[in-house]
């Protein structure tokens, strides 16, 4: 099923939806219901939501123009049952009691990582960009080349959970300006001890995560979404959130649990089963939490 979806989207916006069966059953899609996909991406989850029951309507948000275009193509057959919204899910005008279910599948898509020119990956040489919203001005190059050493060390530590944040920041400041992803990755690798350089993950992984979070203001958008979205559910409506690292999962867990409007349905987060793990490496770190409006 997932491979078919991948085929339909084609090479333009390749993204296999994670935990798809768990999302669909967790949202308990109702015939005639109105759902919000706050991160439509290539439209993989959205398609499954639209197919899960009769006459489902969907509002689909993405801040990335390419993603929204891909989703429009992928979901064209559903016609005016889908409304597309280009924008950040944190600035969407949520109407109280309007959705039977909400999904957010956080972070970047595999499309972003696989498109060298978007500058998310240190595996390809590209401009240091990392913007999901191509209309914003702040890029990763601005942060790396203009922020002072202490600020860089701080974000690498806070948003990358990078232990060697200070020495990496020092090396970056010594060697900047940087223009490309690979130049930056090499400088980071040169700043860390040998054993760290050949560890389980590339030494630039955490710094790239931190930059991405900062450039896209990801944690602030998530915090706003967690406050604004639940009142837009109808009573009994469900919210499902997939996160990919602890900096996202922590506020999701905390805010769902502490919302006076919600009852959490997942004591522990749902994670991918063996079959999905074997098929889709991206599912490895995915955690799904679901709550229901009282
Ligand atoms: C993991 S992908 C979603 C993939 C999608 N579920 C699918 O099946 O194809 C995340 C998408 O959310 C978008 N996104 C991330 N943060 C966002 C935000 N704050 N507001 C709107 N879109 C956002 C990204 O541009 C990306 O396309």
TrEMBL record:
Keywords assigned by UniProt, alphabetized: Cytoplasm, Methyltransferase, rRNA processing, S-adenosyl-L-methionine, Transferase
Family membership noted in the UniProt record: Belongs to the methyltransferase superfamily. RsmH family.
Organism (species): Anabaenopsis elenkinii CCIBt3563
GO molecular function: rRNA (cytosine-N4-)-methyltransferase activity
Recorded catalytic activity of this chain's protein: cytidine(1402) in 16S rRNA + S-adenosyl-L-methionine = N(4)-methylcytidine(1402) in 16S rRNA + S-adenosyl-L-homocysteine + H(+)
Chief site of localization: cytoplasm
One GO-annotated biological process of the protein: rRNA base methylation
Tagged with keyword Methyltransferase: yes
InterPro entries in UniProt: RsmH (IPR002903), SAM-dep_MeTrfase_MraW_recog (IPR023397), SAM-dependent_MTases_sf (IPR029063)
Broad enzyme group: transferase
Compartment(s) of residence: Cytoplasm
Gene3D superfamilies for this protein: Putative methyltransferase TM0872, insert domain, Vaccinia Virus protein VP39
Protein's job: Specifically methylates the N4 position of cytidine in position 1402 (C1402) of 16S rRNA.
Binding-site residues, S-adenosyl-L-methionine: 43-45, 62, 89, 105, 112
Annotated EC: 2.1.1.199
Pfam families for the chain: Methyltransf_5
UniProt xrefs under CDD domains: AdoMet_MTases (cd02440)
Gene Ontology cellular-component annotations: cytoplasm
Name listed for the protein in its UniProt record: Ribosomal RNA small subunit methyltransferase H
């Amino acid at each position: 099923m997932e491979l078919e979806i991948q085929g339909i989207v084609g090479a333009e916006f390749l993204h296999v939806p994670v935990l798809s069966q768990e999302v669909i059953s967790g949202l308990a899609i109702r015939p005639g219901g109105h759902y919000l996909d706050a991160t439509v991406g290539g439209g993989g989850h959205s398609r499954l939501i639209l197919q899960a029951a009769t006459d489902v309507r969907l509002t689909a948000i993405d801040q990335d123009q390419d993603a929204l275009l891909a989703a429009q193509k992928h979901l064209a057959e559903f016609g005016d049952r889908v409304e597309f919204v280009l924008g950040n899910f944190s600035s969407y005008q949520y109407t109280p009691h309007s959705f039977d279910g909400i999904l957010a599948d956080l972070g970047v898509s595999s499309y972003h990582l696989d498109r060298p020119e978007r500058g998310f990956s240190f595996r390809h040489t590209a401009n240091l960009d990392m913007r999901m919203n191509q209309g914003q001005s702040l890029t990763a190059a601005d942060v790396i080349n203009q922020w002072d050493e202490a600020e860089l060390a701080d974000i690498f530590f806070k948003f990358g959970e990078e232990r060697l944040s200070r020495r990496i920041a020092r090396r970056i400041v010594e060697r900047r300006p940087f223009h490309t992803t690979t130049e930056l990755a090499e400088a980071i690798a040169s700043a860390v001890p040998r054993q760290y350089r050949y560890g389980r993950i590339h030494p630039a992984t955490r710094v790239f995560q931190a930059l991405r979070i900062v450039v896209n203001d990801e944690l602030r958008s998530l915090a706003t979404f967690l406050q604004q979205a639940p009142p837009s559910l109808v009573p009994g409506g469900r919210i499902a959130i997939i996160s990919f690292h602890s900096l996202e999962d922590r506020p999701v867990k905390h805010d769902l649990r502490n919302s006076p409007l919600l009852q959490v349905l997942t004591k522990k987060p749902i994670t991918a089963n063996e079959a999905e793990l074997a098929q889709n490496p991206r599912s490895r770190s995915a955690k799904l939490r679901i709550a229901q409006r009282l």
